[in-house]
Specification:
Blueprint: E1 2-6, H1 21-30, E2 35-38, H2 48-60, E3 64-69, H3 79-98, E4 103-106, H4 117-137, E5 141-145, H5 158-168, E6 173-178, H6 179-185, H7 191-196, E7 200-205, H8 220-229, E8 235-238, H9 252-269
Parallel strand pairs: 1-2, 1-8, 2-3, 3-4, 4-5, 5-6, 6-7, 7-8
Helix pairs in contact: 3-4
The structure holds manganese (II) ion.
């Protein structure tokens, strides 16, 4: 299994266009990461030079772009917001293909009070289907990440993601498992992996407190052995996350390096 690091903790609003990107890539490459996950600016879709330069930088440091962050408003009651999600996916798929990135992460936001769940479900199915068709044209896959009850009331378990994948009925729609959300919502770290099987396209390894791997109490050995059992051979993305502005460390860039280093060491000790 290959390991990537989500660039999020390197700084607030840190994207693949950040001034310090190269410094981050150099570090991650040196300590043994195979890839990165991150945010790209869809408005730059037609600026071919931007993507050429980025692509070269990634390859210079022998890193792959494992997954880019995508839309989360496919389930919105506002048709304009659903259309935006589809349009965003179309741009991101074009960018992903220029960067040899296989995956776009998608999700589903919290429904406001009074929004009927069955309608939101139908909106999500229809708009994700259109988005998946655009992504398909560029040979890019969509991977749905469910979140936990504190972050969404829409899709928050593996069973519902499988139902979504089946109803959308597009081969390039897959699932992401995130151990932080699993820890809250699932009965075990094994069953969801087995249920998804080949539909599992990407993984977020995230601690119970979203800090460096080993700083919390997620049972990673059990989860990783379940992945081995299904022959999972894709990326494990280390995801460090802060929920509040107040949670950001004083020196996020240096702290992110520390978390990235300790996390990869933790995984190496587990034989990854
Ligand atoms: Mn995640």
């Amino acid at each position: 299994m290959k390991v990537s690091f989500s660039l999020y903790p390197f700084g607030k609003n840190f994207t693949l266009h950040n001034q310090r990107l190269e410094e981050a890539l150099k570090f991650l490459s040196e300590v043994g990461y195979d890839g990165v996950d991150g945010v790209v600016d869809p408005q730059k879709v037609h600026e071919k030079d931007v993507w050429k330069k980025l692509s070269k930088m990634l390859s210079d440091y022998d890193l792959k772009l494992a997954c880019i962050f995508g839309a989360t408003t496919f389930n919105s009651p506002d048709p304009a917001e659903r259309e935006q999600a589809i349009e965003l996916t179309r741009k991101l798929a074009e960018i992903a293909s220029m960067l040899s990135c296989e995956n776009i992460l998608i999700g589903g936001r919290r429904l406001s009070e009074g929004v009927p769940r069955d309608k939101a479900w139908k909106w999500a199915v229809e708009s994700i289907r259109k988005a998946a068709d655009y992504a398909r044209e560029k040979n890019v896959d969509l991977a749905y990440e469910y979140w936990n009850r504190f972050e969404t009331n829409f899709i928050k378990c593996t069973d519902d993601v499988i139902k979504l994948i089946n109803e959308v009925g597009r081969e390039n729609l897959y699932a992401i498992l995130d151990t932080f959300h699993m820890n809250i919502e699932e009965k075990s770290f094994v069953e969801p992996v087995k249920k998804l099987g080949k539909k599992l396209k990407h993984v977020h390894l995230s601690e119970s407190n979203r800090l460096a791997l080993g700083d919390g109490h997620i049972d990673f050995p059990t989860f990783l052995s379940a992945l081995k059992d299904i022959g999972y051979d894709k990326y494990l993305c280390v995801e460090v996350f802060y929920y509040e502005d107040a949670d950001w460390p004083q020196h996020p860039f240096e702290t992110a390096k520390d978390y990235a280093l300790r996390s990869i060491k933790y995984l190496r000790n587990l034989g990854i």
